[in-house]
Design a protein that fits this description.
globular; two-stranded antiparallel sheet; mainly alpha; signal; cell outer membrane; membrane; TPR-like_helical_dom_sf; SusD_RagB_dom; 19 helices
Length: 522
């Protein structure tokens, strides 16, 4: 869909930075037009809600932040030590995350955190404005319900990202529309933030239309809200609560992309090249004109690729797997085969020059050949939720809620697609049925490591389970789990309790005297 950019809300930080100038500016700032002057027509409401698709949390997963820094959601994964940024000497938040030294470098880390904090709360304020004002606009009831449901989804989605990253947050469900309002909100406990998230997503599920994402104008719909809510419940270990919502998704018409062959026409190559698959439940959309995807195609290589392409000038492995992480795959797993998720060499068909990663893997899933060879413009949508993740959520929550018998088939579907030996869903299901619940759940955790590493979900799993995956450096496919605090990450750094959250933006702490810093940070 084509979005117009009309951003009427302001983030708390932006509003506060203006407050010292209030006496000097007699006229109201332009951003005060939200209530009485702007929200008068359906078109205006539509434009404001459209803004939320490309602001805050969706961009944290989808936006390539530059040639040297991947999406914001990739940064917490660095805490595991299993992924690294080859330019971390400049992008130091990656280095300090990987080495677990953020506490001694709070100001440097905060420089990046500021942008995350600012844009998320800007999106939350815009959503608050939409939720408050849209019911009062003369328009069809179904349009009111849809736009309000979308705004509630985005408010929840932004709060969900932030509560995982920072813990307790200033919690506001009202629009900041005047400098006379009290901006100085204290941090609410994570449990209170989750209550708002759950209520918003329940409302979104109840009011948004059904449909497969790519057949529904690529707008947020009932199934997007349902998988997000199941994810929210999973993050809190509310397994039984998650079951009915993940079942909505499983019955929605979304499906796993099948393999046509195990090479160029594998499911994983289709996911890499196509935006029209029924596996996509929610994605951030890109195109060549309105919203190109930036540096995504360059993230698939090391810097040596500078010599083989001419459409991009900088290549960096900003989110690259370590060889120890790649040991999470057994040899017969399709995802570890060359040119599936990862690759080690590429020959430019136009000039014959070859990039060789040697023993260092590039990320094949990020590679867009048309952009690299012809256009210099990334257009591939970036998946945030896929049906494969829905199956893995279903497997875990159903095993915990009702037992392995109801869950084994969901895990088997994901495993069978990645098999190179022809194992069927039925055969894998039968193998899994003999496991205890705890054994089965650990098999789900392993499969999440193998299936979802490029969608930035790994640290979320560490937080919610309180466990760290110890991937063997010598035995392929061998993973054990140990208590997170006290474990050594993939780079040998030892997790402390204070490593579980990022520091609150130091700029926000200066603006808002009611905020407190997370323990252990400056």
């Amino acid at each position: 869909m084509n979005f117009k950019y009309i951003i009427l809300g302001l983030s708390l930080s932006t509003m506060l930075s203006m407050s010292s100038c209030k006496d000097f500016l007699d006229e109201n700032p332009r951003t005060d037009v939200g209530e009485g002057d702007y929200y008068t027509t359906q078109a205006q409401a539509q434009e404001n809600v459209n803004t939320l698709y490309r602001l805050g949390a969706p961009t944290f997963y989808g936006n390539a932040n530059g040639a040297y820094q991947g999406p914001f959601a990739s940064i917490p994964v660095m805490l595991t030590g299993y992924f690294e940024n080859s330019y971390e000497g400049q992008e130091q938040i990656n280095q300090y995350s990987r080495l677990l030294t953020r506490q001694q470098n709070t100001r440097i880390v905060s420089n990046r955190v500021n942008e995350i904090w600012r844009t998320a709360f800007q999106a939350i304020n815009i959503a608050n404005s939409a939720i408050k004002n849209i019911p009062n606009i003369a328009m069809p009831d179904d349009a009111k319900a849809r736009l309000t449901g979308e705004a509630k989804f985005f408010r929840a989605f932004n709060y969900f990202f932030m509560v995982k990253m920072f813990g307790g947050l200033p919690l506001s469900t009202d629009q900041y529309a005047s400098l006379d309002q009290n901006f100085f909100l204290p941090r609410s406990a994570p449990e209170e933030v989750y209550k708002v998230i759950e209520a918003d997503l329940i409302a979104a599920v109840e009011t948004l239309p059904d449909g497969v994402f790519n057949n529904s104008g690529r707008r947020v719909n009932k199934n997007v809200a349902a998988i997000a809510l199941a994810n929210v419940y999973l993050q809190q270990n509310k397994f039984a609560e998650a079951v009915p919502y993940i079942d909505i998704v499983l019955q929605s018409g979304h499906t796993l992309t099948p393999n046509t062959d195990l090479e160029e026409n594998s499911a994983f190559n289709k996911l890499r090249t196509s935006d029209l698959l029924d596996e996509t439940i929610y994605a951030m959309e890109f195109d060549a004109v309105i919203n190109p995807g930036g540096s995504w195609p360059t993230y698939g290589f090391t810097a040596a690729a500078n010599a083989i392409f001419d459409k991009y000038t900088i290549f960096e492995r900003v989110y690259g797997p370590t060889n120890r992480f790649l040991n999470v795959y057994e040899d017969d797993d399709l995802r570890i085969k060359p040119n599936q998720y990862y690759h080690w060499s590429y020959t430019n068909p136009q000039n014959g020059r070859t990039w060789n990663g040697g023993t260092v893997a590039g990320v094949w899933a990020f590679v867009e050949e048309d952009a690299l060879l012809n256009t210099g413009r990334s257009t591939k949508d970036r998946n945030i939720y896929r049906y494969a993740e829905a199956l893995l959520i279903a497997a875990e929550v159903k095993a915990r809620a009702t037992g392995v018998a109801a869950a084994a088939g969901h895990l088997a579907e994901v495993r069978a697609r990645a098999s190179t030996t022809g194992e069927t869903v039925a055969e894998i299901t039968a193998q899994l049925q003999g496991l205890s619940v705890d054994q089965f759940v650990q098999e789900v955790w392993k499969e999440r490591l193998r299936e979802l590493p490029l969608e930035f979900k790994m640290w979320d799993d560490c937080l919610r389970t309180g466990m760290f995956p110890n991937i063997s450096a010598t035995v392929k496919g061998q993973v054990t789990f140990q208590t997170l605090v006290g474990a050594a990450n993939g780079s040998g750094a030892i997790f402390k309790a204070t490593d579980l959250v990022y520091p609150i933006s130091m700029d926000e702490l200066q603006r808002n005297p009611e905020l407190t810093q997370n323990e252990g940070y400056q």
